[in-house]
Amino acid sequence: MAVELVLLAPIIVLIILFLVVCGRIALASNAAEAAAIAAAREASLSRTTSQAQTDANTAAQTSMAQSGYACMTLSVKINDAGLNVPLGQVGTVSGTITCTLNLSDVALPGIPGSWTITRSAQSPVDAYRERP
Q: Taking every annotated instance into account, which residue ranges of this chain make up the domain TadE-like (predicted)?
């Protein structure tokens, strides 16, 4: 019985560590998706393209901080072409979040020290709002 336990214990530990890594990646992916949605929404409410990028960065940083996941690097890119459409037409603003998740604290063979997650979202711009 003791020999069987000695042989199975490392396999069980590896399975548990693998499940921990998969769970962390899945939860961080959901947090990045929420950050992308928040960034796109804030950018779509902005009046200028420069303000859109600033608002999107702030929203993404806040969303990731509230989720409890700290990215090693967090990149926010906004496509704000929808802010400049003519009055009466609906434009869209899209946001792309790239988060590098630190996995170096999980000592599992074959798992990289970091994992990059990229998520995108779109948000409509009100067709009848005041234009700059």
A: 2-41
Residue 132 is given by DSSP the state -
CB 52 within 8 A of CB 84: no
Give yes or no for a contact between 91 and 83, defined as CB atoms under 8 angstroms apart.
yes
Q: Which two tokens stand for residue 39?
A: 């960034």
Which of 95, 91, 101, 79 is CA-nearest to residue 35? 95
Indicate the helix (H) or strand (E) that contains 100.
Answer: strand 91-102
Q: Is residue 30 exposed (0-12), middle (13-18) or buried (19+ Cβ within 10 Å)?
A: middle
Answer whether 111's CB lies under 8 Å from 103's CB. yes
Q: 3-state SS of the chain: helix, strand, coil percent to 5? A: 50, 25, 25
Distances, alpha carbon 94 to alpha carbons 12, 27, 56, 65, in Å: 43, 22, 10, 21
The pLDDT tens digits of the residues spanning 34-60 come to 999 999 999 999 888 889 999 999 999
- The string of pLDDT tens digits covering residues 5-23 is 788 888 898 899 889 889 9
- Three-class SS of residue 105? coil
